[in-house]
């Protein structure tokens, strides 16, 4: 499908393109860019462009001609002569109106005014491309706008008449409204970003990005941003995205993690062009390691870990730094064989001893590990570190732009050093900020601790920031995608609140979530008095504002269940509203010694005005087919907004982070499936975590809605 792109900050704005798109019913293709030109979209210097199957049409006239020729609409006139005249006017708009010369434009306005003396349209007897493009060009002219406001006589009555008529047409107004909406869209706040920043040296059709997760855990919300960002730029430039599994640590990696990562990416709607593994290149990486040893750019060190860490911290050279090439090669062979001595060694890049950037202080680039690899088996007993293999594999696989979180910024010089040391193709690095949320841990090591300690039920626990965890809590994939695109390629490192994400999610689920009713277990039975009410059911809409969701059975009967808190709030003879039934008077309230309501008597007053009652309450008819339920709610796992370096997570554990209360729900929820999202009237949105069975209650997890009470610490 074609994309019609228009630079909203251009001078002049290509109004004619937007108008033609709306005239042809293709307004949904229009995308306004908050830029001066469309360079980032592969159309340098252009203010309007259309992207079609990898091709870019980058002038106003080529765009409107393409749109018109795709349609059966007669915007090109009714015959060959009229089509030729339309083309002449398009050239006129491009060659004559695109100027800020007062004298030239004055003459042009006069020419147009004389031409329109006896005409309603520029070509023929109906609006054509010529009218919409010329009108758009005039609308974008500051000189024309000034004269239209203060010196109409300079323009001429005929030109003004024609211009105001074309401007009044519905499609023109729709186009202008879309432009105004783009301009008036809320300016992104400090914790929001955008992607309209061009990539350095990016060429349409040639951009290659990569998303390189380690197959040793599950994707979390931070990974989601990286994946979406890489996919976005690949698509933006009609390029390629590689999904590369960085499988260089056999101790942690498993094949099942690869499958779960692919599943999570598919759930997010992220697509890739090919899958690779760092292990595909182990032979090549080994050869490059030998090359570095032979050229004196690396050495093999048997210094113990603690001493090495201390030496790097204080800028002290290792005793092994000046070993001969022959000795280094001998030691590396010992590492490769996994001998007892080899296992005491590591290979280090020979960059610097005391560089102020500690990432440049002779980093480790190969280690011994005797654990069999999940793909290569026991072929290798040495494995490259991420710092070594990442730049090399990026270069080998044709990556043009390596998108990395700015926590790696200190390592960028190291990345470039590896490429230069080996003399291989250079790769551009693009930094973006890492997502960080209040009261949230994204560290794989710390999340693993929660799982191993049994504090959470697993990697899909609703309290976890994993893609599976937040989905289980009711976050939609659409909300996750929109939120990450809002954050964009910003390099500002911020501690984000969860409220915007959950508020965005609510906007998505509110129009489509069926409405149901639940009453907590400590309910009160209310008897209907004053008239006989037979047990009966009615079909009522599942969503009053969305009839497409269909109907549900609502049961009415002589005894209804009411929330204890509601019952406690009633006054004698107060008129209340039973939602979806009508008004009733509270005729009798029975209480026990502790003040709890033990029974009610209600007299229906269905003709009463619900607008005049203060209390609109939920209720359920007391019938055997009510569905037992457990309603779950969750708190943050930790009590500190951000753990500092040195903080022990054990000192900041939330004492209780899972809450559940028993309830009963209307009989319709028995048909719900796991993953269904509903709204329980007056309680909020919930997602089905476990379906109801004959023996077990339905499990419903409350979905935060962005309001403070739904996401704040509950302690």
What does this structure look like?
By secondary structure, the chain is α/β, with parallel strands linked by helices. Among the domains are: 3-184, Up-down Bundle (Glutathione S-transferase Yfyf (Class Pi), Chain A, domain 2); 279-389, Glutamyl-tRNA Synthetase, Domain 3 (Glutamyl-tRNA Synthetase, domain 3); 519-623, Ribosomal Protein L25, Chain P. The chain is built from 22 helices and 31 strands. It has a seven-stranded mixed β-sheet with strand order 16-29-30-31-27-28-17. Strands 25-22-23-24-18-21-26 form a seven-stranded mixed β-sheet. Strand 23 and strand 24 (597-605) form a beta hairpin. Helix 4 (102-115) packs across helix 8 (157-167). The longest helix is centred in the first third of the chain and has 16 residues, at 80-95. It is flat and about 100 Å long. The two termini are 51 Å apart. Residues 186-193 have low confidence and may be disordered.
